[in-house]
Fold:
Amino acid sequence: MAEQILNLEQVRHVAKLSRLAIPDDQLPRFTQQLESILEYVEQIKQADVQGVEPMAHAVRLTNVFRDDTPQPALSTQEVLSNAPETDGPFFKVPKVIGEDDSAG
Structure:
């Protein structure tokens, strides 16, 4: 059997910091699972990463966006042309505040 890395108090403390309510009868199970995770992290630490450049993402990505160049703005008429309803130069939308006085 492997040497115990964590004790129940440490797991209880981590649960409290994480704001998790773990019942006492579940603590041994979570202790074993956390130990398993920590053992795996130790294995990963042993990987030789000498000369490997740190990356922000596992897949090499490049910016595919166009250059941000200023362009003429649309006219009010063009902006409102696809709106379902308008009220002069404004979009008309359903009222959402104060619609139902019985909800108070």
About this structure: Residues 8-45 form a domain with the Histone, subunit A fold (CATH 1.10.20). Helices lie at 8-17, 27-45, 76-80.
